[in-house]
Specification:
Elements lengths: L8 H11 L3 H12 L6 E8 L4 E8 L9 E2 H10 L4 H22 L7 E2 L5 H16 L10 E2 L4 E4 L2 E4 L3 H6 L5 E2 L10 H13 L12 E9 L10 E8 L8 E10 L4 H12 L4 E10 L5 E10 L3 H11 L6 E7 L1
Parallel strand pairs: 5-8
Antiparallel strand pairs: 1-2, 3-4, 6-7, 9-10, 11-13, 11-14, 12-13
Length: 332
Amino acid sequence: MDAVGGISGDMFASAFLDLNPELMAAIKESVDEIGLGGELRVESKAFSDGVLKGQRFLVDEGASESSNHTPWKVIREKLIQSGIKQEIRENALGIFKCLAEAEALVHGIDVEEVVFHEVGAVDSMVDVLAASVILDAYNEANWFLGSLPLGRGEVQTTHGKLPLPAPAVVELLKGFDFHDDGETGERVTPTGAAIIRFLAETRGLSQKPEKGKKNLLAAGLGFGSRKLKTKSNLLRVVLFGKSEIVTEEDQVSVLRFEVDDQTPEDLAEALEHLRYSDGVLDVVQWPVYGKKGRIVFSVQILVQTEASESVIEKIFVETTTLGVRFREESRK
């Protein structure tokens, strides 16, 4: 992940939806299962800032009423009681738990007393659900994250104006690498920070790039709602992996024999006849030294198992060998 403009819950979701649009079906299913509102609409829309194009992740609550002030224990209970897939539910609980513990430390209260304000809003809850679906889809992946933009200034919250990065973000991302790119405003939101912290605790997220060759498979760009002065406000995800090589496996017979008293020209003719016999897959020969230092030709023939007997008979007809060795081997 390259946090070019920063990282938030919706930027995380939109980047992966640009990479893999099919994830939207599972995100909508999870949102429906938790029951956040009948008129709630979740969609991913193509977006361009005039420089690059990607996706925006949008949540429309419609006419439904919701509160931005939601206790952590209420969200936890709602998730536990939902019919969401277990792995997705555990991801969501883990992300919210990271955030709740950070908020508790920042405000000097018990975790059970934490009330989410901006993060308790429906759109933030949908962002966490979307991230949880994504983490489940890429459960076997190794995760890497570049340096994060610091941001500067203040942000207006329910608690009044707070310095940036926000106190909860500072608590969540202790130990992570940051840089100051000169842009002002909030660059890493609490939801984005909680996703990163959860990845670090459960998926071994690293800020050091993996060594060795990698095969680039795909990339996705997720845009945030703000506009930056010097760069695109986006999160880029780049997917590396191994190319899928489809293999088949079967059994073949390996026939081996030597010839020491047949002219090279005559043997070449014989092997050409054998090469085009039914069931023969490959014929190779190489010179070896035999009795009294004489040059002997060693021959190997790969043949479909069911045709091995007829090919052995033809070997005795076409060559002067005294015997044929044979065995079965597996082949991919």
